């Protein structure tokens, strides 16, 4: 009964195993080179002709864009990441996290920020501002923050941008100052977007979870996300795209383990989103993969000689709960909901998932191995629910003992269902057996085991975390060198299937014998389901099966002792 209930939970949680991250920067134009001039031999001196009048050159209209200067790049080396900042709006041309290996969060043209976009007037579209860079490289040392200053001009606006890099944080603080040097009041549009392509078909992931799958935002005291957690993929935004242009606390785009979030630190910013649908040619080829953009936008009116200032924090990093909690964006971790009771919209799994995550992190600090932490967490959960498990097993054994009498009643009242039900209930009352006694204790445990499953699914700490790693042989890890990846030897899923089969053989059966035989195929089905799941999840399930077998053996010991004693007494007689 326990496995049947948890199977339903697993099928609901399977949609969580998707992985993510993001980018769509604007490609800088190539620097224009002046055509080379070939030197010609000096001509024979001739009498100088009368100079012709210079032609009248019409000046370009006010605000017309001139030739863009060549792009410049500044490298930033920090303890937690390595970045490359472009002079085109100060966008991050490259961002690679130093987190359990190297994790590139930016893919040029497909995923990442577009930099600072400014529209000098209400009619012009916002565009990246060419800027001068204050340094060619920035080195961030532990214990000391560093800043990079950028400056640019846009139609009479003096624009200054300051990027502040903290040594022990994945946050880049973006300070913006715009001064109106013209003689009229200007309504300026300022945007900081982060973009991702919608369709990632055919685009390889450099690490699991690099491609984003959802947009999350906090506004009006509530946290919303799109698409729904039951269908996590950016393709869902094409039909159900969130149309945001409102004040809020933060907005983020990301996946199960990593995300990018924009957090306004000053008033006046709006949360904005836009979705461009994928385009296909008549032959079915994709012309454009489409893209989704999330960001913040401000539209200040700046009087002549005055300046406007704003600040936005950009976070791009792993979804560690404590790390996100310190920024107030911990609800970007998607635990989903358990659909019971349905009229409440589901039981929030965050109530159970967060304590499990914190307990696992606390255990890891003391044992230093996430595999052992998962085992201890599973043992603790089994100990807590041991009384319910015992009650369920005793009820199932009592039902099994009455099964011959129930079958006799079925044969006797085969043509009278009402009499069969009445006599069956009377039999249960006579022997004080509750027909639901074997299921209800298990149902009470399902949300907890489901939350444990989800907590392991969304735990970014398991990436590159070894359990029993003996090195590599012919390019294959031996044995579990990454709890977030599947077991390359497939030994652990096979062990899980074997333990599940043993557990089912030991569990009392109370239903149709043919149905019991069909249930023996469940271990085979589960083994194939778990072949490519993360090793941490398979380890949890295997340990849970082993503990269930031990509990069953422990409960069967008194019966075996009594049967042995009765056999000895009979032999003496």
Summarize this structure briefly.
This protein has 573 residues and is α+β, with helices and mostly antiparallel strands. A hairpin with a 5-residue loop joins strand 21 (279-280) and strand 22 (286-288).
Explain how this protein is built.
There is one protein chain. With 573 residues, the protein is an alpha+beta fold. The chain folds into two domains: 73-334, Beta-galactosidase, Chain A, domain 5, CATH 2.70.98; 348-568, no CATH class. It contains 13 helices and 29 strands. Strand 21 and strand 22 (286-288) form a beta hairpin. Helix 6 (386-401) packs across helix 9, helix 7 runs antiparallel to helix 8 and helix 10 packs parallel to helix 13 (535-572). The chain is elongated. The model is unreliable at 1-64 (pLDDT under 50).
Spell out the key features of this protein.
seven-stranded antiparallel beta sheet; Beta-galactosidase, Chain A, domain 5; 32% helix; alpha+beta; 29 strands; 573 residues; elongated
- Estimate nothing, just give the exact number of structural domains: 2
Q: Which class do the helix and strand fractions yield?
A: alpha+beta
Give the proportion of residues in helices.
25-40%
CATH class of the largest domain: Mainly Beta
Q: Tally of extended strands?
A: 29
Radius of gyration over C-alpha positions, nearest whole angstrom: 33 Å
Number of helices: 13
First-last Cα distance: 41 Å
Tell the overall outline: elongated
- Runs with pLDDT <50, length 5+? 1-64
Question: Tell me about the biggest sheet?
Answer: 9 strands, antiparallel
Secondary-structure arrangement, i.e. CATH architecture of the largest domain: Distorted Sandwich
Mean pLDDT, nearest integer? 78
